[in-house]
Amino acid sequence: MKVLLIAPNVDATDVGEALMAFKWAEALSAVVDLTVLTFQRPGRPNVAAQLPGARVVTWPEPAWAMGHERLNAMLKPAWPVFARRVRQWLATALEHGERFDVTHQLMPQAARYASPLRHFDVPYIIGPLGGALGTPEAFRSEAAGAPLFTRLRALDAVRFRHDPWLRATYANASCVLGVAPYVRDILRDVPLRRFEPVLELGIDDVAPPSVRQAKPGQLRVLHVGRAVRTKGLRDVVRALAHLRDLPGVRLTSAGAGEELDICRAEAERLGVADRVNFLGRIPREEVEALYASHDVFCFPSFREPAGGVLYEAMRNGLPVITADRGGPGWIVDASSGIRLRVTDPMTYAGAIADALRHLAETPDLASRLGAGARDKVLREGLWSVKARAMADLYRDVAPRRNADQTIRMDSADCS
């Protein structure tokens, strides 16, 4: 099966979307005949050398688009350039007789980029799409102050209703993938042919099984993530104040950000500072050691599209306490953790405290959930497993091989 995969950045040595795109491309190249179209970022390792099992076509990433790393990651200013390159390349390839069974726009993950693949009569898949998850009303006063360009998410719903290029991108796709079922609700104003939830994250392997010897009333709680309000660290700190009768429940936080000082002050105000260890940003190997040394992963992020740290914790056999919302609400099930309804800050902290108390007082349950978390990611999170499932989807949406593929150049826009 011949598959064309497009993503603006593919790089095993990078982070975020570029790394995820590489992991997908690497895994898919083992099960399909894969061609990858992407930018080559100056100063980064050669993409073709990173993917020896695939055919790789690259173009230099525009230097002007890389001046602000965070802005580039959020807005993808070079997307029109990339889309035009893809459209020109694919038109030429088809004119010269090349055929693809399926084309797949893997990235960007945000659901706000019209696809060049919509201009061709080749079945195409978009996603996994994520993002566009709003902050619950009751938390907005505490989550104020986000950068201006992150507030552009508020325009997404308007574009899904009125942007003809974006609507055509999703309406004409053979299948739209979302990182969790909530994405289908985000796109409810677009008539989709088919939607499938597919988490963009994966794992290479799981940690060896381990036995954690927690005693009743004691619990080593871990939170890993950027210290921003939406990740829920403040809510875990507040939860400890409900557990004054369980001084053996202690919290470790790994991650830096503007929320860290606020959480330190909150711990002092609530009288639980002696039970919280704020580590800030630490090296990856130290984070892995924390997963091995703690009893439960508490990550009540209330605006989490996916949740890569959940997979990190679960592959290490940690039970999870998280929000029943967005990606975490889909990743975690009753066999692997406890999901909490997101209400208001005070009620939410109380619910987190109740979950922590339950696990602290029943170590056997924590052990069973930890084993269930490890089994779940082993069963569905390995990259090899995900690639085979994606290849099955490709075969499901692909036409018969003798079907005629033609170019549909019916739009004057170059997006």
Summarize the entry for a quick read.
With 415 residues, the protein is of the alpha/beta class. It has 15 helices and 13 strands.
Topology, element by element:
Elements: E1 2-6, H1 16-28, E2 33-40, H2 47-50, E3 55-60, H3 69-75, H4 79-95, E4 102-105, E5 124-129, H5 156-162, H6 164-171, E6 175-178, H7 182-186, E7 195-197, E8 218-224, H8 233-240, E9 248-254, H9 259-270, E10 276-280, H10 284-293, E11 296-299, H11 308-315, E12 320-323, H12 326-331, E13 337-340, H13 345-361, H14 363-380, H15 383-397
Parallel strand pairs: 1-2, 1-4, 2-3, 4-5, 5-6, 6-7, 8-9, 8-11, 9-10, 11-12, 12-13
Helix pairs in contact: 1-15, 8-9, 8-13, 11-14
Features:
415 residues, alpha/beta, 7-stranded parallel β-sheet, 15 helices, 37% helix, disordered C terminus
Task: Detail the poorly predicted runs.
Answer: 402-414
Mean pLDDT over the residues: 91
Write the element-wise H/E pattern from the N-terminal end onward. Answer: EHEHEHHEEHHEHEEHEHEHEHEHEHHH
What strand order characterises the main sheet? 3-2-1-4-5-6-7
Please count the helical segments: 15
Helix content: 25-40%
Number of strands: 13
Profile the largest sheet. 7 strands, parallel
Termini gap: 28 Å
Query: How large, in whole angstroms, is the Cα Rg?
Result: 22 Å
Percent strand: 15-25%
Main structural class: alpha/beta
Shape: elongated
Descriptive account of the structure:
The relative contact order is 0.13. The protein has helices at residues 16-28, 47-50, 69-75, 79-95, 156-162, 164-171, 182-186, 233-240, 259-270, 284-293, 308-315, 326-331, 345-361, 363-380, 383-397, and strands at 2-6, 33-40, 55-60, 102-105, 124-129, 175-178, 195-197, 218-224, 248-254, 276-280, 296-299, 320-323, 337-340. Residues 402-414 have low confidence and may be disordered. Helix 1 packs across helix 15 and helix 8 (233-240) packs parallel to helix 9 (259-270). It has 415 residues and is α/β, with parallel strands linked by helices. The strands form two sheets. Strands 3-2-1-4-5-6-7 form a seven-stranded parallel beta sheet. The protein has a six-stranded parallel beta sheet with strand order 10-9-8-11-12-13, with helices on both faces. The two termini are 28 Å apart.
